[in-house]
Every structure is written in C-alpha cells, then in structure tokens.
Amino acid sequence: MAPIDRREAHSAHTTPQPVSRRAGIVGAGSIGVAFALQFARAGWRVRLFDPEAQRRAAVPAELAARLEDLARFALIDESAAQIAARVEVVDTLEAAAADADLVQECAPERAELKRELFAQLDRAAPPHAILASASSFLAASKFVDETLPGHARCLVAHPGNPPYLVPVVEIVPAPFTSPAATTRAIALYGEAGLLPVRVKKEVAGFIFNRLQGAVLREAYCLVRDGVASVDDIDTVMREGLAPRWSVIGPFETVDLNTRGGIASHAQKMGPSYERMGAERGQHDPWTPELVAQVEAARRAALPLDQWDARVAWRDRQLMRLAKHRKALAPAED
C-alpha cells in the first residue's frame, strides 16, 4: 500500500461544519484577516480586534476582496456573504477574547508587545481557551512569563501566509505549555481546516522559516559570489525545485531520486553536500546515526519494495502539475 499523503485529509474547500467554535483574533493586519477568513470558512464565529480604528474599518473590504478571489477559483463552498457574516469586527481586545475557544494573536514581532497582549488575553479569555501567537521567529517562552496564571495554555501557532491558501500551521509549545493544551490546539486548528505540525523544541524560526532561511542564505550568497543572477536563481527554484517540492518534501525527493532510497543517496551525495556546507562555514555532516534515523522514518513510510510504484506516482503528480500550469499560461493577473 502506498503511503498516505497527509494532504488527502485536507480539502482545498474547507467544508463548513455546524457552528460550534469561536475564534478571537487580535491584530487585523494581513495575517489576522487571513486567519479570520480561514476560521469563518470552516464555520467558526470570529471576532477580530485591532487597536487602530483605521485598520478595523478596512477589514470588511479586505475580507470581501479575498473571498471574491476564492469564489472566482471555486475554492469556497458557500457564498462569500455567508462566510463574511461570521466575522465581527469588535472595538476591544476583551470583546474579541470573550467566549473564544481559541485566541489568535497576530501582532507585530515584538516581545514586549506580545508580553503585554498575552497578559491581557489571559485575563479576558475563558479558562478553556487556547492562547496562540502567530509569531514567525519568537518562541512563546520569550514573551510569556511563567508567573502568568494561564501560562500553561500559551503557545505559538505560526501559519503559512496566507493560511487559507498555505494551510500548514506550526504548533510550538513552550516548555511550560501543558500537553493537554498542545493536543487541544492541534485538534482545533485541524477542525479549522489547517494542517498542524508539532514542533518538538523551541527554536528561533521554527521549521518553516529555518527551511526558507537556508534557501535564502544560499541564494544571497550565489548572487554575491557572482554565480548566478537573481532571475536565474528564481527560475531554478520555480521550474526545478518548487514543482517537486509541491508534490513531495526534500526527504522524499532524494529518497525517490536514488534507487536504494535515502541511504543510498546519503552514501553517494553526502560528502558533496558536506563540502558545500563547509564552503559556507557550516559543518553539519550527515552522520551514520542521523542517516539511519531518517532512513528508518522513510522506510516506515515507504518500504523499498514499493519504491518503483511511488516513483511512478510522483511522475504522474508532476504531469498533472505540468498540465495545470500549461492550462494557466499565460499567467493570469
């Protein structure tokens, strides 16, 4: 049996469920509005607050514009008006947090600001509510004080941008976050139509931005060193790595690129990658123990006797993607 793709459980259309959840959102910037859309699309009632009246006033039009685009591409199962009606813009943080199952903080990336907001949210939100930050780099322990009465329900939930199109959300508990709160957060974001990923340790940038950062660092270096132009690097990513990575991740990519799987790839290519890393002052060799750990995970997902079938599946997925991209050419505005 072929491995199950987690995305198969996630519909591009987040089918609305009977209204049983409430989300409070603090911060009506692009991520706050995007979260409001995603929760509302999943059938949640949403209250959205921003301290700036001008931002609050802009929300309905921004929400309507995004919903119009989703409807244009048949990515919503209800009318835009029905979804928008679930979002209420409120004038206070307390109103946003009242009766919420989940409060999503979407404020700027400043520890002192987040510390102040979480203290307010802990007082305003009901005891059962999860308090989550959309922080991109700051771990919860950097802005939540363990003296906060509700510190055990606080964590980071970092989304892809925008979450209604890039559904992964990184759930990053602090050392003081209770296991029950982490489990509940994962369940709630799953109910909201997102794909929660548990980050096991607090590290700056989590998974998403560490992977993105590794590519960006090398891209900048290649430009600096005169190896390639900005446009050519974007072309390699867009036409080379990106299509594969939109179907399978980096580990499965190299697992399927080399007969014998990822252990064979590491044996053949590992020294070259180690030398490239050394050029950048990075000494992170793929040790036998590390390769064995990764190989065990891949073989649990895909026994080698299914390797040929999975390669054929990958190629068919790339064909589907190529057909779709061809149909869209020339690109729409």
UniProtKB/TrEMBL annotation:
Enzyme Commission number, as recorded: 1.1.1.35
Biased composition (Basic and acidic residues): 1-11
InterPro entries, alphabetized: 3-OHacyl-CoA_DH_CS, 3-OHacyl-CoA_DH_NAD-bd, 3HC_DH_C, 6-PGluconate_DH-like_C_sf, 6PGD_dom2, D-isomer_DH_CS1, NAD(P)-bd_dom_sf
Domain (3-hydroxyacyl-CoA dehydrogenase C-terminal) ranges: 205-292
Enzyme class, spelled out: oxidoreductase
Keywords: Oxidoreductase
Domain 3-hydroxyacyl-CoA dehydrogenase NAD binding positions: 23-201
An example Gene Ontology biological process: fatty acid metabolic process
Oxidoreductase is among the record's keywords: yes
PANTHER family per record: 3-HYDROXYACYL-COA DEHYDROGENASE FAMILY PROTEIN (PTHR48075), LAMBDA-CRYSTALLIN HOMOLOG (PTHR48075:SF1)
Family listed: Belongs to the 3-hydroxyacyl-CoA dehydrogenase family.
Name recorded for this polypeptide: 3-hydroxyacyl-CoA dehydrogenase
Taxonomic source organism: Paraburkholderia silviterrae
